[in-house]
């Protein structure tokens, strides 16, 4: 501010004064354009919030039904004490995200877990399957060679079991012989909170070598194979449901915040707009009056 | 010394007892979790008996069944609840897990109570599956159609029973 009164900037000040009326008219116009666009944005974020609120209620209802399902699927692995094989370092990570953004940090959270793991030593044995375009977008640049496949069209509609079984098929037919793996997903806790969590992926081989498997009766290879495949699909289904619910709730919060921020901006802009308009009117009045006075 | 030792034993015994209670089904009860992709029917509920159709043959599960794994085939799962009520649910496919703590998990891809199955719709699905099976061109389509056909046959059988 003080610089203006410094030596050598006199011409500039004159120039500014000269252009003042023009610029003021322009700002008035500019402010009204800006105001309109912020109002439009607020409308959009508000309706997005409404949409995701509706989707969230459905997702939460679905999730309630899917929880016992997922817990049931994990139960066997816990009871039979299945552990990942120590001699097979090959791992598979499944990143459960979706195609849609504008939902806070759900996607970055999942990608971060995987990124941290990939930046540690021993990462060359890890491959990643990205579910949803968002995780691919985040991981592609630095860890592109770890990604074996990407699933999209996730998140537009609520996930179904068919989606999960297609995913499971894609994982099983990817040609990557992993020893163990993890599904990284967002576990839904409440409307305002979710946390990254993981579900284990086991292969038939690690189940066969589980210590307590001998307690189980009448097992043959075929049954185990089908069992592992189905339980993979169940786990994926559960993770998809958890992810969808976290995403919708997080989007709801994010859009609510965005609407609030837009509201604040609208208030400020309206104030500036009114002030500027008043200033323009006053100046025009001064011009008229001083013009009239000069004629006298 | 001996006294202290006895104390330890008592402690351990108590802890074991406590765990027995905490782990829900004690002794001769079994907790059933029966869930499908579309609905949860039982969530750790204690029941008397479960009859399931599996690829290694249909079998009944009573409390203290030997731990086992099995793969569901399309058919009717019958659950005998504690109050003697019988619940029949049609399942398309899935898994059965009986654990060493007598808990049973039946996870189905899709399941519906028998009373909500419409017989004429089932007939329709059967004839559609039949025509698809006959017109399947390659091996994969044929296998898929065969599965659809099997499910449809079982639904009709279940609906008309």
UniProtKB/TrEMBL annotation, chain A:
Primary localization class, coarse: mitochondrion
Signal peptide stretch: none
Keyword check for Membrane: yes
Family matches, as PROSITE patterns: ATPASE_GAMMA
Cellular localisation: Mitochondrion inner membrane
Molecular functions per Gene Ontology: proton-transporting ATP synthase activity, rotational mechanism
Keywords: ATP synthesis, CF(1), Hydrogen ion transport, Ion transport, Membrane, Mitochondrion, Mitochondrion inner membrane, Transport
Regions crossing the membrane: none
Cellular component terms per the entry's GO annotation: mitochondrial inner membrane; proton-transporting ATP synthase complex
Keyword Transcription: no
Membrane association type: Peripheral membrane protein
Entry similarity comment: Belongs to the ATPase gamma chain family.
Subunit structure: F-type ATPases have 2 components, CF(1) - the catalytic core - and CF(0) - the membrane proton channel. CF(1) and CF(0) have multiple subunits.
Protein name (Swiss-Prot/TrEMBL): ATP synthase subunit gamma
Biological classification of the source: Eukaryota, Metazoa, Ecdysozoa, Arthropoda, Hexapoda
Gene: LOC114240930
Automatic annotation (TrEMBL), chain B:
Keywords tagged on the record: ATP synthesis, CF(1), Coiled coil, Hydrogen ion transport, Ion transport, Membrane, Mitochondrion, Mitochondrion inner membrane, Transit peptide, Transport
Main location: mitochondrion
Location of the ATP synthase F1 complex delta/epsilon subunit N-terminal domain: 32-111
Any Gene Ontology CC annotation: mitochondrial inner membrane
SUPFAM superfamilies reported for this sequence: Epsilon subunit of F1F0-ATP synthase C-terminal domain (SSF46604), Epsilon subunit of F1F0-ATP synthase N-terminal domain (SSF51344)
Subcellular location: Mitochondrion inner membrane
Tree of life domain: Eukaryota
All residue ranges annotated as the F1F0-ATP synthase delta subunit C-terminal domain in the record: 118-158
Protein name as it appears in the record: F-ATPase delta subunit
Species this protein is from: Bombyx mandarina (Wild silk moth)
């Amino acid at each position: 501010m003080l610089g203006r009164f410094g030596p050598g900037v006199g011409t500039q000040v004159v120039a500014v004064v000269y252009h003042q009326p023009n610029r003021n008219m322009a700002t008035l116009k500019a402010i009204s354009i800006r105001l309109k666009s912020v109002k439009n944005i607020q409308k959009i974020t508000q309706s997005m919030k409404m949409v995701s609120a509706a989707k969230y209620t459905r997702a939460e209802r679905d999730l309630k039904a899917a929880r016992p399902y997922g817990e049931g699927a994990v139960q066997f692995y816990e009871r039979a004490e299945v552990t990942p094989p120590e001699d097979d370092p090959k791992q598979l990570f499944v990143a459960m995200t979706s195609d849609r953004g504008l939902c806070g940090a759900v996607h970055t959270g999942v990608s971060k877990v995987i990124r941290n793991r990939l930046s540690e030593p021993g990462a060359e044995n890890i491959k990643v399957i990205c579910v949803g375009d968002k995780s691919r977008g985040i991981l592609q640049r630095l860890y592109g060679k770890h990604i074996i496949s990407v699933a999209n069209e996730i998140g537009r509609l609520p996930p179904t079991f068919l989606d999960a079984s297609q995913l499971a098929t894609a994982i099983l037919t990817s040609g990557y012989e992993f020893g163990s793996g993890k599904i990284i997903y967002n576990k839904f806790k409440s409307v305002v909170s979710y946390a990254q969590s993981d579900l284990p992926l086991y292969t038939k081989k690690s189940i066969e070598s589980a210590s307590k498997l001998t307690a189980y009766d009448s097992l043959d290879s075929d049954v185990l194979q089908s069992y592992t495949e189905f339980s993979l699909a169940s786990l994926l289904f559960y993770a998809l449901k958890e992810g969808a619910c976290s995403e919708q709730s997080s989007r709801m919060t994010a859009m609510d915040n965005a609407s609030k921020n837009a509201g604040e901006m609208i208030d400020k802009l309206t104030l500036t707009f009114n002030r500027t308009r008043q200033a323009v009117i006053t100046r025009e009045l001064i011009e008229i009056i001083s013009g009239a006075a000069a004629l006298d | 010394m001996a006294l202290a030792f006895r104390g330890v034993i008592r402690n351990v015994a108590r802890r074991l007892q406590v765990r027995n209670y905490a782990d829900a089904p004690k002794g001769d009860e079994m907790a059933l979790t029966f869930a499908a992709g579309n609905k949860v029917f039982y969530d750790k509920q204690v029941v008397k008996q479960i009859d399931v159709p599996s690829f290694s043959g249909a079998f009944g599960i009573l409390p203290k069944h030997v731990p086992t794994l099995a793969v569901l085939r399309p058919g009717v799962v019958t659950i005998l609840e504690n109050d003697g009520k019988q619940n029949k649910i049609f399942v398309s496919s899935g898994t059965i897990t009986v654990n060493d703590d007598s808990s049973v998990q039946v996870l189905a891809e899709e399941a519906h109570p028998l009373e909500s199955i419409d017989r004429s719709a089932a007939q329709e699905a059967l004839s559609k599956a039949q025509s698809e099976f006959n017109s399947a061109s390659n091996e994969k389509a044929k296998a898929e159609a065969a599965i659809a056909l099997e499910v449809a046959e079982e639904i009709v059988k279940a609906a008309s029973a």
